[in-house]
Amino acid sequence: MAVGVFDSGLGGLTVLDAVQRRLPEVPFVYFGDNAHAPYGVRDADDIFALTCAATERLWAEGCDLVILACNTASAAALKRMQESWIPRDKRVLGVFVPLIEALTERQWGDNSPPREVAVKHVALFATPATVASRAFQRELAFRAIGVDVEAQPCGGVVDAIEQGDEILAEALVRSHVEALKRRMPHPQAAILGCTHYPLMEATFQEALGPEVTVYSQANLVAESLADYLARRPEFVGQGTESKFLTTGDPRSVSNKATQFLRRRITFEAA
Asked: Which residues form the active site?
């Protein structure tokens, strides 16, 4: 059995780390499309094509269930994939819904009509493509009413993180938070809508202030995945080996990933 985890680069490792801790008995195959990262500046058709190609590669590794641990892919490609492309014996899941369920205090799989929730003013920090897709607002509307979402495209943050430039990443985060707060001075909650951003969570929190609740995705996705596999064990695939695949240079990606997770990670060429 194996589950696939896909990201355009290294950000999905934050999700992988959480799901491995939650489900230590499950092998995970991680696919990073580092050669084409970042996705956040690409158009929807390009993101769709790249995400489909990566998903097929994970299916070939015996992963019948693939987690898109990439908000840009979840926002720009997932709905189209589910409507027209994914075969009936496979599943591809995104990372938005567990986050929204936590924000709206709904149980996993609660499909009751949308209702009023306590949080009325939400700041969304995401890549330009995720912001342009309005996928977060669309998913939120299925579950809650009366919530004002102010979205801030965070250009450059993913590139800085992928390049290991923490000083630049912190400066960019502060700049983007300042830009959002000019439009929404008092958000109650902030969504880190990119799986790279948990690495900058302390910077986001400091810039936003202690009164703002910051929601990060990794642990929420891990809990949701555990629940999903308990309900749908038939989608645990036939793969038996955990591995890391990349379209980039395996040595370079391995070194960055090792710094990222602070444990030795070895990528193979996809």
From this structure: 70 (proton donor/acceptor), 194 (proton donor/acceptor)
Question: Of these residues, 52, 63, 70, 154, which one is catalytic?
Answer: 70
What does pTM read for this prediction? 0.88
70 has catalytic annotation? yes
Whether a cis peptide bond, with omega within 30° of 0, leads into 128 is: no
Known catalytic residue at 194: yes
Residue 109 has what pLDDT?
Answer: 65
Q: Which residues of the chain have pLDDT under 50?
A: none
Whether 197 has a binding-site annotation, put simply, is no
Our measurement of the distance from residue 141's CA atom to the centroid of its chain's CA atoms, rounded to an integer in Å, reads 19
Domain residue ranges in the chain:
3-95+218-269, 97-215
| Class of domain 3-95+218-269 (CATH, top level) | alpha beta
Helix axis angle for 166-183 and 201-208, nearest 10°, is 40
pLDDT at 1: 66
Q: Contact 36/50 with Cβ under 8 angstroms? A: yes
196 marked as binding residue: yes
Q: What is the pLDDT of residue 101?
A: 86
Q: Is 176 annotated as a binding residue?
A: no
